[in-house]
Here is the input.
Amino acid sequence: MADNAKANLLTVDDLVSGYGEAVVVDGLSLQLAAGQSMAVLGRNGVGKTTLLNSIIGVTQRRRGRIILAGRDITALPAERRAQAGIGWVPQERNIFRSLTVEENLTAVARPGPWTLERAYNLFPRIKQRRANLGSQLSGGEQQMLAIARALMLNPVVMLLDEPTEGLAPIIVDEVMATLTRLVRDEGLSMLVVEQHAQRLLGITHQAVILERGKIVWRGASAALAAAKPTLEKYLGVVKR
Amino acid sequence: MPPIPSPTLSGHSPRWRLVLEVAFWLLAFSAIFLMPRRLLLLNEIAILALFALSLDLILGYAGIVSLGHAAFLGLGAYTAGLACKHFAVDPLLAVAASAFVAGLVGFATSFLVLRGTDLTRLMVTMAVALLLGEAANKMQWLTGGSDGLQGVTVPPIAGAFDFDLRGRTAYVLSFLTLLALFLIARRLVASPFGMTLRTIRDNPLRAAAIGVPVTRRLVTIYTISALYAGIAGGLLAVTTQFVSLDVFEFSRSADVMLVLILGGTGYLYGGIIGAVAFKVLQDVLSGLTPQYWHFWIGLLLVALMVVGRQRIGSWITRPFSRLRAFGQPNAPDNGGVS
Here is the structure.
């Protein structure tokens, strides 16, 4: 990998995209360096999920480019982007219901450091349920399976869409601990979309705040966590 | 790593499944000796089962609905019939030719079918079957048109096994073909290829987003399915030594769908169980009321939907999973739910 590609593992350049006639992401640019994690924050409907969907390739692009590890993937269809190294953990978790846990993991696995064994080590709980169908899992287990499934693709960068949404607090802790481990110990590069900023800022390196499809704030996560007025202004967050 | 039970026939330990399966096939084979007078019916059942199996590959595993699957049955039947009539080839070779031709046309038409949603697929598959049926009707010089393909003489298999009037050779051929293709299909659907097919059936967009080449997978399975249906058609031609236009008819496509609904989709045995049920019912009911047997099939179908057991197979497998559930309080009772 060229040094330049390493510094900018994922580049989104002047992206304009949406669904049908509607433009949701409106001239957005960001760079993510290898081994870095970035929190993508913002209120409901500002285009966070659409940004991720545009990177995985299921929205209509009007303008802009997406470059992954020095390779322009803008013109690639979704499956080729996934093969190029985009690992996606969707918002609704979207487990394949008619496949077993293990089949969910192995169906699309690609060779690399992440194996079934390591995925199971990361989530012992889903190992216990390996022979169960996807439709028989709890919400938390589904989330773990969705993360493990993305890891099995051995992605260059992971995109997580509200990984703690709708989960019980104790499961949220578990998922957050796993993400921390992936960021700190594994050096995995990731973009994480969340509505609840506080905890995510504790584990990511950088953060961006979106409003109406544009980035209105960017910087270090630690700086944002300390900048109460900024959080208050864009997210309406009151420190617990 | 120990093998994990596959979700097909779920709720059963691998050992139980194996016992059930071996018993099933032994029973089917021993029918040669148990029901020597009904071998022609059994041959029809085996061919219909293979035809339904081919539909299950696309409907049950990839979620492609088709109301024109007879297109490939018909192509296979005419290919084998013509090969035997004009070139007096070995029946096995004739059936292989059926597979090739049907597979080729399946590949070519798969691109039409993959566009659009369920409703367009229903219409497009039906249109392909209608087109081929009408083409066979018009090409009288080749197919004999509405008179059917006359004068098909099928030589003995490998020069040794002649087709007898009671249908013994016919049934053995169809049975062994069904068994072989079933085993291949089972291997196929349990492979990573088969798993990715099910991800597509569950949600194509999501499957693509995690790296499944959706179009290529669908083209492949549609081609394989067409090839299977072609073999069923080829068997039909060589075992009955006659081909008529009705192999392309809409009722063939509709019946095989009915068979699959009776037996259940997505676990491969559905087509076989459905074919047995369908043909036996047809045989019994048409003996009682020759004109109206479809009425009773319809009534049964309605009853089946109301009762909520989506497939006949679950009546057989469900009690076993209940038994097992006694020993394992946490085991989900999943028998019969695909």
In short: Chain A has a mean pLDDT of 91.
